[in-house]
Amino acid sequence: MDTQILSGKVVSASVYKGLKSRIVKLKTNSITPCLAVVLIGDDAPSHVYVKNKTKKFASLNLNSETIKLTNETSENALLEIINNLNNDNKYHGILVQLPLPNHINNETIINAIDPKKDVDGFNPVNLGRLAAGRPSFIPCTPKGIMRVFEYYKIDLSNKHVVVVGRSNIVGRPISILTSLKRKYSNATTTICHSGTKNISYFTKQADIVILALGSPEYLKGNDIKEGAVVIDVGINRVKSQTKTGYKLLGDCEFSSINGKASCISPVPGGIGPMTIAMLVENTIEAAEKSANFAL
Fold it and tell me: pTM here?
């Protein structure tokens, strides 16, 4: 079987093309969407990710500002910064880059972000709206996965989706999105996680497997059925004899799944580009809402 590669680069390019008219309309009304990114510490992947976000915003003539803080920054100091960003009309979106230092409570910080500026979609208000089937800001990675399904016309209706992972960043939101009663969704969705016995039992039944486990090459070819669709969200840095000293691996073993799956998203170049594209789209949407208009 020839496995189709689901390219996030191709889909994200289509997304950016579709956003152009919305950007023009905002700028015509003297509004330039602006994202504030709060980056704490020296986590290398976080710095790379923020750099890529900044470059993409600049390439679209959108504004983004990064507030860099040290690992020693206190929780109260961070909360004060977020409060100032919440009350500054210059910023339409606020993103606090995770992970945070151990002395700062993730939940406290996420709860402090104004839901109207929560372009990551992690605030309980936005997660609650999603769970109720009335989403406002959808977390970027799950939203990007759904756009990949739409672009490649992979209809989930009457299909069995198995999600491996239950985080509020990917696993839980995508389990909701895939089961909503709407076009390209309406699936029967099962969530597996670290407490699930024999995960392979479930993935072998799945028409679509979505991996968000954070375990390099966890899923093998013999863990899926012939013709399954595999969405690999994992981005794992593994030491290697390269210039960077590492290589990126997904949560699935590409070599054994390629040729057995009908479709697969690669790592890198699959869901990663879609996460940034959805962040851009959510920021534009926040700007539109702030101006009380939308296309």
Answer: 0.95
Q: Does residue 9 fall inside a structural domain?
A: no
In a domain, residue 16? The reply is no
**In sequence order, what DSSP letters do the residues of 73-119 get, joined into one string?**
--HHHHHHHHHHHHT-TT-SEEEEPSPPPTTS-HHHHHHHS-GGG-T
Question: Is the same domain home to 85 and 175?
Answer: no
* Distance in angstroms (rounded) separating the CA atoms of residues 259 and 12: 25
Which residues span the domain enclosing 195? 140-272
119 falls within a domain: no
- Cβ neighbour number for residue 29 with a 10 Å cutoff: 11
Both 92 and 160 in one domain: the answer is no
Task: Residue 268: name the closest of 238, 242, 236 by CA.
Answer: 236
Length of the chain: 295
Q: Show which residues are catalytic.
A: 53, 97, 120
| Number of domains composing the chain | 2
Q: What is the pLDDT of residues 191-250, one digit of tens each?
A: 999 899 999 999 999 999 999 999 999 999 999 999 999 999 998 888 887 777 788 899
Q: What is the CATH number of the domain that holds 43?
A: 3.40.50.10860
What is the b/e burial string over 128-167, where b = at least 16 CB atoms within 10 angstroms of the residue's CB?
ebbeeeebbbbbbbbbbbbbbbebbebebeebbbbbbbbb
With respect to residue 92, please indicate whether it lies within any of the assigned structural domains.
Answer: yes
Range in 96-105, 134-143, 244-253 with the lowest mean pLDDT: 244-253
